[in-house]
């Protein structure tokens, strides 16, 4: 008598002498198990892909946040640099303007000191001391050329319209509304367009 446990095909559901239906049933069990394993692997891979995609998305979000932070910081630094550049440009312009003003004031101060000498030469000329060629005439010519080089110009002549902004009236002999300079007691001077001394005059009626 044969013992069922001695049959090697007993656990597989079909023996070597099993019929076609039994063999097909046994083969179907193996295919189902294989397909189940494949589906499990596919599901596991899909889960891994989802997790990886989530990690990549999270990393991309972190990168975007960092890029936004750096961009904002760059914009802030750019604004600071532009503000400092504008302040420096304004400082340079102010310094240049102050230097130019200092030069003009120093030049006007020197020219103002020379005007007393110009007055002496004018009086000498009125007395006829500069009529003849001589050392004093030569000096007067050089001195006046120096004033011209410094862009110091005189103004105030008899017959000019009276302007209280640049003329200092010590006497008014006019009788009408129209006033002109009758006599010049002291010439006025400008340095470029800057007034450095008013002209001292006597006001008279137009001729």
Describe the structure.
Homodimer. It is found in: Cytoplasm. It holds the Pfam family GrpE. This protein is an alpha+beta fold. Helix content is 59%, strand content 15%. The chain is built from 2 helices and 6 strands, in the order ααββββββ. The chain has helices at residues 20-126, 135-149; strands at 152-155, 167-172, 180-186, 188-191, 194-197, 199-204. The strands form 2 sheets. A 3-stranded antiparallel beta sheet has the order 1-4-5. Strand 4 (188-191) and strand 5 form a beta hairpin. It is rod-shaped. Residues 1-5, 7-16 and 18-29 have low confidence and may be disordered.
Short description:
By secondary structure, the chain is of the alpha+beta class.
Keywords:
alpha+beta; three-stranded antiparallel beta sheet; 59% helix; 207 residues; rod-shaped; three-stranded mixed beta sheet
Tally the helices: what do you get? 2
Mean of pLDDT: 80
Measured by DSSP, the beta-strand proportion falls in 5-15%
- What is the general shape? rod-shaped
| Count of β-strands | 6
- Taking the alpha carbons of the first and last residues, their distance comes to 168 Å
Q: Main sheet, how many strands, which sense, barrel?
A: 3 strands, antiparallel
Radius of gyration: 56 Å
State the share of residues found in helices, binned by percent.
55-70%
Physical arrangement of strands within the biggest beta sheet: 1-4-5
Order of helices and strands: HHEEEEEE
């Amino acid at each position: 008598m044969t013992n069922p446990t001695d049959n090697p095909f007993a656990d597989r559901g079909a023996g070597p002498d099993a019929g076609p239906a039994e063999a097909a049933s046994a083969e179907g069990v193996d295919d189902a198990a294989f397909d189940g394993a494949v589906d499990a692997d596919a599901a596991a891979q899909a889960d891994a892909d989802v997790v990886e995609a989530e990690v990549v998305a999270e990393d991309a979000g972190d990168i975007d946040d960092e890029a936004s932070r750096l961009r904002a910081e760059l914009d802030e630094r750019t604004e600071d640099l532009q503000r400092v550049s504008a302040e420096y440009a304004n400082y340079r312009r102010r310094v240049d303007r102050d230097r130019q003003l200092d030069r003009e004031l120093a030049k006007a101060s020197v020219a103002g000191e020379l005007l007393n000498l110009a007055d002496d030469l004018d009086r000498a000329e009125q007395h006829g001391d500069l009529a003849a060629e001589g050392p004093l005439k030569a000096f007067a010519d050089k001195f006046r050329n120096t004033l011209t080089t410094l862009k110091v110009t005189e103004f105030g002549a008899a017959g000019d319209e009276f302007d209280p902004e640049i003329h200092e009236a010590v006497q008014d002999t006019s009788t009408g509304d129209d006033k002109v300079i009758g006599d010049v007691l002291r010439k006025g001077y400008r340095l470029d367009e800057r007034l450095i001394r008013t002209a001292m005059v006597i006001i008279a009626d137009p001729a």
